[in-house]
Amino acid sequence: MTDAADMATACVVAFIFIIVRAGRHAARLRAVRSGGQIAWRKSKR
């Protein structure tokens, strides 16, 4: 079970790390990104 525990721990740590970094980045771009993705999807169709 050690391998499974190590995998779970690594996934949790990586997940938190990604969320923290993405959260800081998205804090600036959230409004632009949400509006930009909608416009991009419409233009792609």
Automatic annotation (TrEMBL):
Keywords: Membrane, Transmembrane, Transmembrane helix. It comes from the Bacteria. The chain crosses the membrane at residues 6-23. This is Uncharacterized protein. The lineage of its organism: Bacteria, Bacillati, Bacillota, Clostridia, Eubacteriales.
